[in-house]
Specification:
Helix content is 62%, strand content 0%. With 61 residues, it is mainly α. The chain has one domain. The radius of gyration is 12 Å and the shape is elongated.
Length: 61
């Protein structure tokens, strides 16, 4: 997970960052049948980071 994303995020890193974030998200979602609050918070943060990068760098699905 990236520690901090800001408006100055460099979209040149988007491909690798998105790949890593999506892998981490998938891993958490697969291992958590009934996630605790900390895991839920981490999943939400990962989803938000993915959305931020896609919006900032104008990446469409």
């Amino acid at each position: 997970m990236l520690n901090q994303l800001e408006s100055s995020y460099n979209c040149a890193n988007a491909g690798q960052d998105l790949h890593e974030l999506q892998q981490e998200l998938e891993s958490l979602q697969q291992t958590s049948g009934n996630p605790d609050q900390e895991t839920t918070d981490t999943i939400n943060r990962l989803e938000n980071q993915i959305r931020f990068i896609k919006n900032k760098c104008e990446i469409r699905p």
